[in-house]
Write a structure and sequence with these properties.
By secondary structure, the chain is of the alpha+beta class. Helix content is 42%, strand content 15%. The strands form two sheets. Strands 1, 2, 3, 4, 5, 6, 7 and 10 form an eight-stranded mixed beta sheet that branches. Strands 8-9 form a two-stranded antiparallel sheet. Helix 2 runs antiparallel to helix 3 and helix 3 runs antiparallel to helix 9. The longest helix has 27 residues. The protein is globular, with a radius of gyration of 26 Å. The structure holds adenine. The site of adenine has 5 residues, from helix 12.
C-alpha cells in the first residue's frame, strides 16, 4: 500500500507493502473477529433479518454516541418502527421522542426525512455507497458502513477508533482527524477491505479500537495484530494519535423554568431562533448574563414582585454540554395558574426583564416522555428530586403532628 506523501507534514504518511503485510494483517484480524465479535443487537438483527433498516438505524445512532447509550434506545426504536415505511408515518415529534436522550437529534430528523423520501418514491433500499450517499444525513462514513455491511461493497470505514488503530499500526504521531490523514486512512481501509468480507473487516477494526486498542491503556498483549504494530515495537502507543488542540469552549449560563400548575406542566416549542435544540419541546430557558462563578441564590433576585403571581423555588444547578458549549443551568420550579398567561420575571445583568411566554400545557405525568434532550431531562430530574423530597418532608411533618 503506498500512501501519498505530503511535503508540508513533518510526519509523512508513507507506507509500502514492506512496512505492513496487509494480507497477513487481514488474515490475523479476520480470525480474531470471528472468535471475538461482540453480539451487539444490530449485528444479531442483521444476521437474522438481512434487513438494511436495522443496520441503517444503528449506524445513525452510533454517530458520536457510545455503544452503551445506543443499545436500549436502538431496541425500543426498532420495536416501534420496524421499517422505514413505519418511521415515515411518525410525526416529527414522535420521531424525536423515539430517540430521546441520545443527543445530536438532527441526525434523526434526517433519518425521518430520508424514510419519508424513500416511502414517497416507493423505493427500496439504496444498493450501493453512491446511492446511500444521496439520502439526507448520510455521509462517507455512514454510507461506507452500511454499504459494506449490507451489500459487501469494498468501502473502508474511518471513524475515531479506526484512526487510532491505524495511527498506532504505522506509528504516525499525527492528529488523525485532519482531512489529509483521514483521506489516506480511507485509502488504506479500502485496500484492507478489498478482499474478504468488507462489512466484517470494517467492524473488526472498529471493534479492535473499542476493546483492545483503547485510547489510554491499550491491551497489546491481547492484540491479534500486535506483531504488525510499529507503535508497539517503538513503545509509542501513548503518542498515537497526537491529541487534537482543544476546541475553544464557550461558557453559557441559562435559567430554566419548570412551570407546574397542579397536574400540568408548561413547556415551550423552541423555534428556529433558539440558540440550542431548535424545534424541540422543552422548558423555557433564558440566557442569563450572571457570571459562571456566581454564588447560589435561593431565588432570582428580581422575583420578589413576581411572587405575587407565581411562586419560584430554586432547584439544584446542573451542567450540560452541547458541542463546544459548556452550559450551566439554574432551574427553578414555578408554581403557576394554568388558566392565566405565564409571565416570567428575571434579572439580567443590568435590568429586570419579563417575558410572557407561549406555553403548551401537558400532563405532568407525560413530561418524561415528551422531553427529548438531556438539557431538559436533567431539569426534570431536579424537579423530580425536589418534589419527592418535599413530599417526604410533608409526610414526616404530618407524622410528627
Ligand atoms: N460504530 C459504528 N458502527 C459500528 C458497528 N457497526 N459496530 C461497532 N461499532 C460501531
Amino acid at each position: 500500500v503506498a500512501l501519498e506523501q505530503n511535503s508540508h507534514s513533518c510526519h509523512i504518511v508513507a507506507m509500502s507493502s514492506e512496512t505492513l503485510n496487509i494480507n497477513k494483517f487481514r488474515a490475523n484480524l479476520t480470525a480474531w473477529y470471528a472468535k471475538n465479535e461482540r453480539p451487539l443487537p444490530w449485528r444479531l438483527m442483521w444476521k437474522k433479518t438481512k434487513d438494511p433498516w436495522v443496520v441503517w438505524v444503528s449506524e445513525i445512532m452510533l454517530q458520536q454516541t457510545v455503544i452503551k447509550a445506543v443499545i436500549p434506545v436502538y431496541e425500543s426504536f426498532l420495536r416501534r418502527y420496524p421499517s422505514f415505511q413505519s418511521f415515515a408515518k411518525a410525526t416529527n415529534e414522535e420521531a424525536r421522542q423515539a430517540v430521546r436522550g441520545l443527543g445530536y437529534y438532527r441526525r434523526f430528523d434526517m433519518l425521518h426525512r430520508a424514510s419519508i423520501q424513500l416511502t414517497a418514491a416507493k423505493r427500496k433500499f439504496p444498493g450501493s455507497f453512491d446511492e446511500w450517499k444521496e439520502l439526507p444525513g448520510i455521509g462517507d462514513y455512514t454510507a461506507s458502513a452500511i454499504a459494506s455491511i449490507t451489500a459487501g461493497e469494498s468501502c473502508g470505514v474511518v471513524d475515531g477508533n479506526v484512526e487510532r488503530v491505524l495511527c498506532r499500526l504505522l506509528d504516525l504521531r499525527v492528529i488523525a482527524s485532519e482531512p489529509l490523514y483521514k483521506k489516506q486512512f480511507r485509502v488504506l481501509m479500502n485496500e484492507l477491505v478489498s478482499s474478504g468480507h468488507p462489512g466484517e473487516l470494517n467492524q473488526a477494526v472498529m471493534e479492535l479500537g473499542q476493546t483492545i486498542c483503547t485510547p489510554t491503556s491499550p491491551s497489546c498483549t491481547l492484540c491479534p495484530v500486535s506483531k504488525h504494530c510499529k507503535s508497539k515495537k517503538n513503545s509509542s502507543q501513548a503518542l498515537n494519535p497526537m491529541a487534537k488542540p482543544k476546541q475553544q469552549v464557550i461558557d453559557v449560563s441559562l435559567t430554566a423554568y419548570c412551570i407546574v400548575a397542579g397536574d400540568q406542566i408548561g413547556l415551550i416549542r423552541r423555534d428556529e431562533n433558539s440558540r440550542f435544540l431548535k424545534g424541540t419541546l422543552g422548558f423555557p430557558m433564558f440566557e442569563s448574563t450572571l457570571p459562571l462563578a456566581a454564588p447560589k441564590t435561593k431565588r432570582p433576585p428580581s422575583q420578589s414582585k413576581a411572587k405575587k403571581d407565581v411562586g419560584y423555588q430554586a432547584l439544584s444547578e446542573y451542567r450540560h454540554a452541547i458541542t463546544k458549549h459548556r452550559i450551566r443551568v439554574r432551574p427553578f420550579l414555578v408554581e403557576a395558574d394554568h388558566s392565566k398567561p405565564v409571565t416570567l420575571k428575571f434579572t439580567l445583568k443590568f435590568a429586570t426583564s419579563q417575558k410572557t411566554i407561549a406555553i403548551e400545557w401537558h400532563p405532568l405525568s407525560k413530561t418524561e416522555e415528551l422531553l427529548v434532550s438531556n438539557l431538559d431531562r436533567k431539569a426534570l430530574k431536579q424537579l423530580n428530586i425536589y418534589q419527592s423530597t418535599t413530599k417526604k418532608q410533608t409526610i414526616s411533618n404530618q407524622t410528627r403532628l
